[in-house]
Amino acid sequence: MRVVGGAAGHGPSYSVATSQARRSVWWGWGGSAPRWPAARRHSRVLHHRRTDGLPLDELLRTADVVSLHVPLTPETQGLVSRERLALLQDGATLINTARGAIVDEDALVEELASGRISAGLDVFADEPRVPERLLDLPNVVLAPHIASATVETRAAMTRVLVDNVLALLRGEPLPNEVFA
């Protein structure tokens, strides 16, 4: 197991994806697919959304790397079940930077302990608790919920905030309005 991150002021720099990935899955509800350099050079990036893409189970069967990008909702809680984890091919990598409860964590721990798959995990079902069995596994990279802690991401987040505040002050519709 490799833990990444650190104290405030120590910018994390790490990569979970590898350039050896032949088929990657981007699985999300909206937005655009990640723009990983490795994906552009060495991978075929597939996707699944509610509205388009390949069926989720088919993607899980064929992917070398699965990266989750979905919100936690009643629809997505437990979506990557024991049965769906079993669909992953031997040697596949699951990356979860979305929400821990999207994946059946007990089943994931069993799969990882067996060595059949690997994972990069930035989120856990019962944060800040990390399942103890994960701590000694060589096929897991754990991060303390800091996947967005890059200069580029934080700058983009700040830009979204400023754009929304300026639109509000001008009496214009908010570019990124959230509806509860």
Give your account of this protein's structure.
The chain is of the alpha/beta class and 180 residues long. It folds into two domains: 2-147, NAD(P)-binding Rossmann-like Domain (Rossmann fold, 3-Layer(aba) Sandwich); 150-180. 27% of the residues lie in helices and 16% in strands. It contains five helices and seven strands; from the N terminus they run ββαβαβαβαββα. It has helices at 37-42, 56-62, 82-87, 105-114, 151-170; strands at residues 2-3, 23-28, 44-48, 65-69, 93-96, 118-121, 140-142. It has a seven-stranded parallel sheet with strand order 1-7-6-5-4-2-3. Strand 5, helix 4 (105-114) and strand 6 (118-121) form a beta-alpha-beta unit. It is globular.
Q: Secondary-structure map with pairings?
A:
Elements: E1 2-3, E2 23-28, H1 37-42, E3 44-48, H2 56-62, E4 65-69, H3 82-87, E5 93-96, H4 105-114, E6 118-121, E7 140-142, H5 151-170
Parallel strand pairs: 1-7, 2-3, 2-4, 4-5, 5-6, 6-7
Main sheet strand line-up: 1-7-6-5-4-2-3
Order of helices and strands: EEHEHEHEHEEH
Count of individual beta strands: 7
CATH classification class of the largest domain? Alpha Beta
Low confidence ranges: 1-39
The CATH topology of the largest domain:
Rossmann fold
Overall shape: globular
DSSP strand content: 15-25%
> What is the makeup of the main sheet?
7 strands, parallel
> Overall pLDDT, averaged?
77
Task: Please report the number of helical segments.
Answer: 5
CATH superfamily of the largest domain: NAD(P)-binding Rossmann-like Domain
Helix content: 25-40%
Number of structural units classed as domains: 2
Radius of gyration: 17 Å
Provide the structure class: alpha/beta
End-to-end C-alpha gap: 38 Å
The quaternary organization reads as: single chain
CATH architectural designation of the largest domain:
3-Layer(aba) Sandwich
